[in-house]
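Query form — protein Myosin binding protein C1

QUESTION: What is the three-dimensional structure of this chain?
INPUT:
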Amino acid sequence: MPEPTKKEENEVPTPAPPPEEWSLGESPAGEEQDKQNANSQVSVLFVEKPQGGTVKVGENITFIAKVKAEDLLRKPTVKWFKGKWMDLASKAGKHLQLKETFERQTRMYTFEMQIIKAKENYAGNYRCEVTYKDKFDTCSFDLEVHESTGTTPSIDIRSAFKRSGEGQEDAGELDFSGLLKRREVKQQEEEPEVDVWELLKNANPSEYEKIAFQYGITDLRGMLKRLKRMRRVEKKSAAFAKILDPAYQVDKGGRVRFVVELADPKLEVKWFKNGQEIRPSTKYIFEHKGCQRIMFINNCQMTDDSEYYVTAGDEKCSTELFVREPPIMVTKQLEDTTAYCGERVELECEVSEDDANVKWFKNGEEIIPGPKSRYRIRVEGKKHILVIEGATKADSAEYSAMTTGGQSSCKLSVDLKPLKILTPLTDQTVNLGKEICLKCEISENITGKWTKNGLPVQESDRLKVVHKGRIHKLVIANALTEDEGDYVFAPDAYSVTLPAKVHVIDPPKIILDGLDADNTVTVIAGSKLRLEIPISGEPPPKAIWSRADKAIMEGSGRIRAESYPDSSTLVIDVAERDDSGVYHINLKNEAGEAHASIKIKVVDLPDPPVAPNVTEVGDDWCIMNWEPPAYDGGSPILGYFIERKKKQSSRWMRLNFDLCKETTFEPKKMIEGVAYEVRIFAVNAIGISKPSMPSKPFVPLAVTSPPTLLAVDSVTDTTVTMKWRPPDQIGAAGLDGYVLEYCFEGKPPKIRIPRHLKQTYIRRVGEAVNLVIPFQGKPRPELTWKKDGADIDKNQINIRNSETDTIIFIRKAERSHSGKYDLQVKVEKFTESASIDIQIVDRPGPPQTVKIEDVWGENVALSWTPPKDDGNAAITGYTIQKADKKSMEWFTVIEHYHRTNATITELVIGNEYYFRVFSENMCGLSEDATMTKESAVIAKDGKIYKNPVYEDFDFSEAPMFTQPLVNTYAIAGYNATLNCSVRGNPKPKITWMKNKVAIVDDPRYRMFSNQGVCTLEIRKPSPYDGGTYCCKAVNDLGTVEIECKLEVKVIYQGVNTPGQPVFLEGQQQLLHNKDF
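ANSWER: The structure tokens for Myosin binding protein C1 are given below.
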């Protein structure tokens, strides 16, 4: 890589000129001395300054600056500029690299700027600035870029080698000024130039942008600042007889001539550009003609656009030079284009320069591309292309591309493509509850509208409209009968329609929820049976009833069928015993068939029992038994009623008011010696049977009392003589004789269990239990009680024994007292055992859960699970209640219901209901009920209401600026702040950048972030803190940036100006020494 080289100050040797005048390649001794003095000035921070250099196109060059770090506590800040204010930190990349290193041994900072593959437009003036706290140092240097040796510029050789006349001041030099001057005059005569300075001076501010685009002004703001300075009234000068014009303009690549006339030709003249002295070279040519001092600038480039001034003694005069870009011409015109809707359209033109500024217009209005715009502008060298994504009819218009040298127009016509139906809609027949999918495919990717029976289709949770490319779908989940109809799809912007018919069918169903588990229906003989079975199906099915393969017809017979849209009814006018049996119902429609069997049971009063038998009589009692009736009436026998009467009487008297559930009974309180008869009634759920035939007459007789005064008179080896007296009471039957018995000493034990204890003894919780069990045995037997095989806890159960009986007593029964009690009576080696079952019952607990299984029409299907606690007794049924949500008043719907599911009917449409269920056993209903957690809404118009399902809200969000940065002006020396607000989840990371370079660990900046408000504070900014600031927010979901521009105003004696300071007379040198 070539190192930068200094410009040759003595490029063309010439004879020594007179001391008061000098030309190209030479300078007076005084000027050389001044230059040496300027270069030898003691630098504040620089140890080695970057030197100007030359480079060929396509080669690399490096500029080096060094700063000593012995007296510095931290790294100094170094900035590289091109021209006045172009900060090169934002331009770093493929062709420009900035590098900095630190040598610890020598404590030296080295800063390098490397230009890679130089181009012609890289030539110009550069500046390096170094800042440390209150210290500041700067250095300017030039870069010249020459054409490579392989290229041959097109020049006029004859004019290039033209020499000036002999004996003149510029003799022997290559001088183009004479010819250029004459050509300039000729051009002015033929085609007068437009003075851009005059245009800006006389134009309205609203026309500045238009003028800048037309004449290629790239730095409009700088031009306006310079124009403002030009308007100042120059004071009359003693050194200059004629000063420079306020402004000059020249085309890029042209030549400009600056002329001043001195009042004293002996005054020393120096020319400056942006404060840097200009030295003679092939680019800058100086001439002296009497009192005139002339400077030519050859091959003007954009870097020559600057402020120039000339000094003579202590006075100076300045001017501004505007280098105008050559006009950009349109070399390839736009062409008229025809396209179809939805296609991508590209309008292309070519211009004369690469990367030129081209504006696009639609019907005269400028097209401004953006992130949400369908217009994109693509530049490929000299080609400029306007891209329209997804063209529509609204894009039909006249489009034009405008450059600084002309414009080109074309017409764009966008029409609809001919539509082809690739896949039409088809008629569908769908089962109820299944999915309906209407699908069609057309040749174009366009939207469309769906209608049903002429009305627009509205999307819902159940109905979805899908559009993917050229395919359109209408999907209906869980088809209902109201979904049946004529559907039409109409593509937008076309008059074509695609029709289809949807027919919803439902296989027939037989609903038997209201019947028992075995589908049995019980009817009382002689009554009318109307069995209504709900049915469903679409279209409504046809119902056929049959019994034993014989159809039951509809009509007016005693047994007939009746059909309705939603039910089928079997009617039996007068039920008879022979009507019992299995009946079949068959449903059929085009969707299928359904079958069910129902058992009808006709119940009647039971037959009367046969005449009872009296097996034993006493003085006022007897024991009778009987056989159950031959026919129980189709319902189990619940018990019997017993009546008696005197044989001579006709009035029967009921002996029991509680049903006798056994076939044995003991009538009491009869008159001894009177003949009686008894009869029996059988009872089932239907009622009481006819009485049985009376029993044979019987007479209650008292048994004689035992003989008295029994004594042994004499005893022999084989005989015993005994004596006694007759009984005290003989009774109405008289005394027929005596019976003698004998036994060995002692009596075997025998337990006499009372009849009511031979079955399970049932008591409720809290009631007293007092059981007396008589027994026999001599000598006095030993008694042992056990409960469920374990000894009885006498603290809870009291046992009291006597010689003839034993008593179990429980003051307040509890469920834990239930069980099997075993009694053992022992006399010597003889034992007798008996068992008693005691069951302590209580009210049951409520059902465990109650659910709403389904809601349709005016009906609600419920189901529940049996209670966990049945109260130690079988669950005999359930009681179901309903309550309207508005009033919450409970009403009983069903009582004594045996199944664990039920259908509640005849609910009010539009109301919302809750339901609860009580359990029931022999002790009664449960204390509490279990209520449904959800409510059942009886929707109107047959619509099914489903509670909405709310998903957890996702708070994740990509970063987004809710308040942007705004362009800001700041006053030098006063703190400035930039504010914006951002939101995002997770919380985004904030990074601040200046001119695309991140701000890190710089004490001149402070960054805050509070509740999403981001602040960047710039402490006491200087003009060099101006630039483009960017706030960047990053989280896992994305990245977002926002920019603003900051300009720093400098105030000197009441004059404020953004960026470039304005100085009053006598202050410039002082301020340069202090701050600049």
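ADDITIONAL NOTE: The first strand starts at residue 46 and ends at 48.
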